[in-house]
Amino acid sequence: MASYGALLLRLILGVVYIMHAYLALVVFGPSGMIAYQAKNGVPFPELATWCLILAHVLGAIVFVHLKKGFWAHEGGYEYVLVLLVATVAAAMIGGGALSLKR
Question: For the chain, which residues make up each domain, given as ranges?
């Protein structure tokens, strides 16, 4: 049963990351992301945009959500922290049901 829990975790994390990447790269595009970062007070928005594309969750916590406190409904880092920890947990758990690597 635990291997199916790992599968569910991997699936939902995959969907969330794909949708965030789609939003950043296709909907906003790099120039739109730069404008968004600048609007939110991110220092060096051009550099930050490319860092966020490569390390989206950590960048989001540090540059956007940390200064707004913990609670997600106030723009805080609660949700992003859950994504980060769930990703680390999924990596530590390993394969599981229907994984390519067993």
Answer: 2-93
